[in-house]
Amino acid sequence: ETSGHNHRVTLYTLTFCESLEITRDAIVRAVKGAFLHDIGKLVVPDCILGKPGPLNVTERRAMEMHVQYGLDLVAQADVLNEAVSLVAANHERYDGTGYPLGLRGEDIPYEARIFALVDVFDALTTRRVYKPAFSVAEALTLMQEERGTHFDPVLLDHFIRLAPALTEELPRDESDMEILFRERMRPYLDHFIEMEPVLAKTGQSFPPWFG
C-alpha cells in the first residue's frame, strides 16, 4: 500500500504541477519531495503505522518524529537535496496548526502546499486500515471544509477542478502503474542529470523507477 500510495501521489503531484504551468525545476523539486515525503516512516514501528484506531499521545509523538527521520535520511545524498523542503513541510497546515514548525500561509513552501492537497486526496479516496475509500465527490466535499485551514485556498480551487480526472488516468494494476510512472517521469530526466556523477562515485545504480 505504501508503494502504491507513493506512485499515486507522485503522479498526482506531477499532473497538478503541469496544470499550474510552473517551471520544470519546480516540478522536479515537487516530484522528488512527493516520492520521498514519508521516507522517515521507515524508522517508525509498524505497530504505530498500522494501528487501526486513533494514536495515543506517545504514539502520536513517535509518528510525528518521522519528519525529522526523513530529513536525516534525505540529507545523506546530495541528489535528494531538492526534496528537503517538501519532506520538511508536508505536514504543515495553511492556518499554522501543522507540524513540526507550525508554518503559516505562504511561509509553507509552494511544493508542500501543492502536496498537502494531493496527499489528503489520495488518503481519502483509498481504503486504509482505519477507513473505507471515499468517492472523489465525497473527498472533495470534505477538502472544501478545510479551505484556508489545512489548504491554500487558491490551490484548492484549482485542484478541485482537476481532481475528477486524476483517478481516471491511473491503472489499477501495480505493474501498469510503474510503467506509467516511468513514462511520465521520462521527459524530466534531464533535470536529474546531476545524479550521474554522484552515483558514479558511490557505485550505485539508478533507481528502478527511472527506467
Report on this model:
The protein is 57% helix and 0% strand. With 211 residues, it is mostly helical. Helix 7 (110-125) packs across helix 8. The model is unreliable at 195-211 (pLDDT under 50).
Helix content: 55-70%
Gyration radius, in Å: 17 Å
Chain-averaged pLDDT: 86
Give the end-to-end Cα distance, rounded to a whole number of Å.
Answer: 21 Å
Number of strands: 0
Largest sheet: none
User: What structural category characterises the helix and strand content?
Assistant: mainly alpha
> Oligomeric status of the shown chains?
single chain
Shape: globular
Order of helices and strands: HHHHHHHHHHH
What is the count of helical runs?
Answer: 11
What is the percentage of strand-forming residues? under 5%
Low-confidence stretches: 195-211
Name its key features.
single chain, 11 helices, mainly alpha, about 55% helix, about 0% strand
What's the helix and strand layout?
Layout: H1 2-20, H2 24-36, H3 46-49, H4 57-64, H5 66-74, H6 84-89, H7 110-125, H8 136-144, H9 153-168, H10 174-185, H11 195-202
Briefly summarize what is shown.
By secondary structure, this protein is mainly alpha-helical. It is built from 11 helices and no strands.
